Structures are given as structure tokens and as C-alpha cells.
């Protein structure tokens, strides 16, 4: 027998299928009624309704059924090793308050020589991709995507949803201030995510700059500078004067080369929403493509929302026809505002996207009604 479907499980538990869909959403799995689920999810849901889930014993080659549906893209049979192509690194900048993250990201934006400054108003979006001549490989264009918004909370939230979208963390430490509580916090987040860390010692122009102290403090935290025989890259810079910023970009590319980052660009896009909101043109999201290529006209599904991609806009306000792996773009066309961190997928057509989105909407409504009923009941008990 194949793994259990949402519908079958709902029947066994004597629950509405939408309720099970909502339960799965709580577990970070987006499924429709006909989809199967993995045993861990089934077990968790059974437990919720007071049942025990048992895996059926199979003869000899008993196989644990498929992974949760959201991982399906990962398991896509078309993602064969030979389909994978190098992709740009996705970098998150973290650090203590006022250590210069925003100033650094601004400085990097401006070193974006591919950007046409004339006429266009540079829009600040939560994630942006810069292109510049590769410092080592003549004639080649290098790209890096920076995530701006993720304060630590967003970073962890995405990680909790299983979306480790960051390849490299740049840990900004002000040379005059040294390691502070949020430096350590950021360090722990980066470590938990298992991504390599590049230390940017910022504010080197400051009279009180003490890069040696920063190195010592971080060494105590187990980040050994490479020039001290460790394997962490340290770059001294000033986001204000921009001295050293190019060096940082170079080091990011170097680190990225070591990681051999790859993705299949030739498949329907899958990625995550970095930020979302409403603009005069309707719901607008900043999307980070993880794999595949997102194109204008694609049918997009994102949590309980769907739509046809009307426009893709980059950091410089330019309209793009498509965005490949690791590229961050503003997307217009969804019919609602999804939560940052949520996953988007491109599906065959808009009808399909709508069908699944509506199922999810229904699941959310069921859940909301339940919560209201429960709250009312609780209030009642309080009154009594
Ligand atoms: P939060 O977003 O509040 O966490 O701060 P942040 O890390 O983004 O710091 P931000 O870029 O806002 O910079 C804080 C202050 O430090 C500002 O007054 C900057 O002008 C100043 N600053 C940033 N980089 C440098 C630098 O390289 N040298 C000097 N001297 N000052 C800097
Ligand atoms: Mg800032």
C-alpha cells in the first residue's frame, strides 16, 4: 500500500480533510487532499487526535514512504547532477546593532557597477543581487545576492521552515566596539544553520578601531582567523569610506567557489518570499529563487495565494523577463500577501495554482473558525 493520503487519514481520524491540511501547514507542509504525507507528519497528526500511528510492517524490503510533499522539488527526478549549474552565493549580513550592516549593504549596492544609476531610482528591497566584473576571471560576470531584511528573527523563522536560503553569513563587528551580545547571537544563528562565516571588521576608519581585539574576542568564540592558522576569513573595512569593501566581495566569491554552489536552472522555479507587502499595483513580494527559473507569465503558488507573474523587477527598478537560481527579484501578480519566509512554487497553469490555493484558504478558514469557537468556549468557562 502506498503512504497514506490526507483524505484517507482524515477519514480514519473522523476529521475534515481541511483540518488535516491545516495541521500539516502547522508542520510546515503544504499538501492538498490527494497528496500523501510522510510517517512523521502522520504520526504527529494522529497523536493530536489521540490516535497512535503505526507503520505497516512490510515483507523484506519495507520502505519508509516518501519525504514530505514540500521537499518534492528537491527530489525532482529532473534535478540530475548533470543538470546542475553554478549559481551565485546568497549572503546574509548580521551583527550587533549599529555595527554598520545597513551602511555596508549600501556601500555594496553602490559598487554595483552593472547598475545604471542614471534616471532610475534605486529601490531598496529586502534582497538584491549585484553583478560586477569577476575580479579573477576576465570577461566573466560575478553575482552575489544579499539578504537585507533578515534580522535574526526572519533568518531563524526561515530556517525553522526548513528553508536554509543563506549560503554565507557576513558577521559585521565594529572595530571600535568589538564583540557584543548580538554578535554572539548572530554567530550562534550562523552556526546552527551550518553556514560558513566571513568576519567583516567594520569602522576601520574610526580612531578607536582595534581589529586585533576583535580577532582575539572572536577567537575566544572559536572563530580562528585564517592568518592565525584558522579557517575563518577576516576582512578589515570601512563601510563609510568603502575601503576594503571590494576585498570583502572578493572573499565572498572565494568562499562561494569552495562551496561549489549549484542548482538546476531549467525547471519550474522554487524559492522563498523574503518580504511582502501591498503596493499601488497590488500585492508585491521580494522572491528569492532557489532553483529553476522564474519567468513573467508563470503560474505562481505561494501558501494560500496564487497568481500569474505580471512583472519581475530588480533592485535598480528594471523589468526582467526571468530570474534564475539565487537571484532576488520583486514579483507582482500574487492575489494576496504571503508571510515572509514562505515557499513559492511555479505550477503548470493558473487553474492548478488557484485550485490548490483555494484548498489552503479553506483550510485556514476552518482553522480560524475553530480557534474562534474555542476562544468563545474558554471565555464562557471563565464567566462561569
Ligand atoms: P542596526 O540596523 O540598527 O542594527 O544598525 P546597523 O548595523 O545597520 O548600523 P548602521 O549601518 O545603521 O550604522 C550605524 C552607525 O555607524 C551610523 O551612524 C553609521 O554612519 C556608522 N558607521 C557605519 N559604518 C561605519 C564605518 O565604516 N565607519 C564609521 N566611522 N562609522 C560607520
Ligand atoms: Mg541597519
Residue windows where pLDDT falls under 50 for at least 5 positions: 60-75, 111-123
What structural class do you assign from the helix and strand content? alpha+beta
Terminal Cα span: 50 Å
CA-based shape:
globular
Number of helices: 10
The fraction of residues assigned to DSSP E strands is: 15-25%
- What is the succession of H and E elements? HHHHEEHEEHEHEHEHEEEEEEEEEEH
Mean pLDDT: 84
The strands making up the biggest β-sheet line up spatially as 3-4-2-5-6-7
Rg (C-alpha, Å): 23 Å
Bound molecules: guanosine-5'-triphosphate, magnesium ion
Q: Tell me the helix content.
A: 25-40%
Largest sheet: number of strands, sense, barrel closure: 6 strands, mixed
Number of strands: 17
Coiled coil: 347-374
Domain Tr-type G: 86-262
Biased composition (Basic and acidic residues): 71-86
Region (Disordered): 59-89
Tell me what you see in this structure.
By secondary structure, this protein is an alpha+beta fold. The chain has helices at 6-13, 17-26, 39-48, 72-75, 101-110, 152-160, 181-193, 211-220, 245-259, 350-383, and strands at residues 85-86, 90-95, 127-133, 141-147, 168-174, 197-202, 233-236, 262-263, 270-279, 282-291, 294-295, 299-302, 305-313, 319-320, 322-323, 328-334, 343-347. The strands form four sheets. A six-stranded mixed beta sheet has the order 3-4-2-5-6-7, with helices on both faces. It has a six-stranded antiparallel beta barrel with strand order 9-10-16-13-12-17. Strands 1-8 form a two-stranded antiparallel ribbon. The chain starts with 5 loop residues before the first helix and ends with a helix. The model is unreliable at 60-75 and 111-123 (pLDDT under 50). The protein binds guanosine-5'-triphosphate (GTP) and magnesium ion (MG). Residues 95, 97-103, 202-203, 205-206, 238-240 line the site of guanosine-5'-triphosphate.
Amino acid at each position: 500500500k502506498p503512504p497514506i493520503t490526507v483524505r484517507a487519514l482524515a477519514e480514519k481520524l473522523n476529521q475534515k480533510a481541511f483540518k488535516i491540511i491545516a495541521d500539516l501547514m502547522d508542520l510546515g507542509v503544504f499538501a492538498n487532499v490527494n497528496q500523501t504525507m510522510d510517517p512523521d507528519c502522520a504520526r504527529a497528526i494522529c497523536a493530536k487526535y489521540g490516535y497512535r500511528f503505526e507503520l505497516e510492517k512490510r515483507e523484506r524490503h519495507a520502505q519508509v514512504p516518501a519525504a514530505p510533499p514540500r521537499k518534492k522539488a528537491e527530489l525532482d527526478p529532473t534535478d540530475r547532477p548533470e543538470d546542475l549549474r553554478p549559481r551565485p552565493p546568497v549572503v546574509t549580513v548580521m551583527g550587533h546593532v549599529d555595527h554598520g550592516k545597513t551602511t555596508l549593504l549600501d556601500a555594496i549596492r553602490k559598487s554595483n557597477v552593472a547598475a545604471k544609476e542614471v534616471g532610475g531610482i534605486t529601490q531598496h528591497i529586502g534582497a538584491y543581487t549585484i553583478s560586477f566584473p569577476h575580479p579573477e576571471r576576465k570577461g566573466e560576470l560575478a553575482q552575489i545576492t544579499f539578504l537585507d531584511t533578515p534580522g535574526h528573527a526572519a533568518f531563524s523563522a526561515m530556517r525553522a521552515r526548513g528553508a536554509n536560503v543563506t549560503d554565507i553569513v557576513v558577521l559585521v563587528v565594529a572595530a571600535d566596539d568589538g564583540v557584543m551580545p548580538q554578535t554572539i547571537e548572530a554567530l550562534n544563528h550562523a552556526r546552527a544553520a551550518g553556514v560558513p562565516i566571513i568576519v567583516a571588521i567594520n569602522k576601520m576608519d574610526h580612531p578607536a578601531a582595534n581589529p586585533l581585539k576583535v580577532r582575539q574576542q572572536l577567537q575566544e568564540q572559536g572563530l580562528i582567523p585564517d592568518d592565525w592558522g584558522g579557517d575563518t576569513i577576516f576582512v578589515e573595512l570601512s563601510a563609510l569610506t568603502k575601503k576594503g569593501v571590494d576585498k570583502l566581495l572578493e572573499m565572498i566569491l572565494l568562499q562561494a567557489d569552495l562551496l561549489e554552489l549549484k542548482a538546476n536552472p531549467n525547471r519550474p522555479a522554487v524559492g522563498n518570499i523574503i518580504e511582502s507587502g501591498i503596493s499601488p499595483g497590488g500585492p508585491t513580494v521580494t522572491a528569492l529563487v532557489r532553483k529553476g527559473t522564474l519567468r513573467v507569465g508563470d503560474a505562481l503558488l505561494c501558501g494560500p495565494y496564487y497568481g500569474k507573474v505580471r512583472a519581475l523587477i530588480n533592485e535598480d527598478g528594471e523589468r526582467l523577463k526571468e530570474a534564475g537560481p539565487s537571484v532576488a527579484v520583486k514579483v507582482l501578480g500574487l492575489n494576496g500577501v504571503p508571510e515572509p519566509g514562505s515557499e513559492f512554487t511555479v505550477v503548470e497553469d493558473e487553474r492548478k495554482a488557484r485550485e490548490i490555493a483555494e484548498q489552503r484558504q479553506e483550510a485556514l478558514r476552518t482553522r480560524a473558525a475553530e480557534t474562534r469557537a474555542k476562544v468563545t468556549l474558554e471565555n464562557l468557562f471563565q464567566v462561569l
